Amino acid sequence: MTENSKASSRPTVADGTLSAAIEVDRLVKLYKQTCAVDGISFTLPRGSITGLLGGNGAGKTTTIAMIMGLVLPTSGRVRVLGHRMPEQSAEVLGRMNFESPYVDMPMRLTVRQNLTIFGKLYAVENLADRIARLADELDLNDFIDRANGKLSAGQKTRVALAKALINQPELLLLDEPTASLDPDTADWVRAHLERYRNENNATILLASHNMLEVERLCDRVIIMKRGRVEDDDTPDAIMARYNRTTLEEVFLDVARGRTNGAKEEAR
């Protein structure tokens, strides 16, 4: 099966069989006496790009880990591509992927070897062709046979993205996808993600501290603080509600507890 036929063979909205990409319902995670996630709920439609924002300790990483089925919720429910997580994770893990530049791949293996291993884990058909295509699209050819440990931070970020796209996922979870990249390369990666979403009707959940990136990419923004959802809307609507011209200003308002004043100014 070719990559195009693989994408076209997936169910479409016209089939009437598609559920939301992600459904989070009253999700709670306790670590002893600490409440990392405190009763959050949201639903992400397929084909959307959503930014998950919040300062350190806001609960973003724990939320993503529960969506992936890596962390068991204390209470509440998560469904991914119509399947309960983590109980039915085997049904969906091959249809999703995760990328973070802060999670290193084996250092002694070359880029090609790493991508080959991950491709085999996902049972990717025509794997050599898929790796060659990603190498062209993400500009990896100059170092594809170099050991991962000898790459620059920016090169590692591009390889991490290639790993995340190796199985042509329907759901892509991203943590700081353009970290360590120069502005030109970061802009190119953002354009690639937009194109990938449009060509594959993929759903992307993006955790980032780059507010300009979120404004450009995301249809919707979920802001978390102390384990709860502080706000949830389109970037333009959130900026208007806080009477701010950038998401960075909104982020600072939320982080510094100025949300009530900002909202009052907007009324």
Automatic annotation (TrEMBL):
Belongs to the ABC transporter superfamily. The keyword Repeat does not apply. It comes from the Bacteria. Keywords: ATP-binding, Nodulation, Nucleotide-binding, Transport. This is ABC transporter ATP-binding protein. Residues 22-251 form the ABC transporter domain. One of its GO terms (molecular function) is ATP hydrolysis activity. CDD domains: ABC_DR_subfamily_A. Involved in beta-(1-->2)glucan export. Transmembrane domains (TMD) form a pore in the inner membrane and the ATP-binding domain (NBD) is responsible for energy generation. Pfam families: ABC_tran.
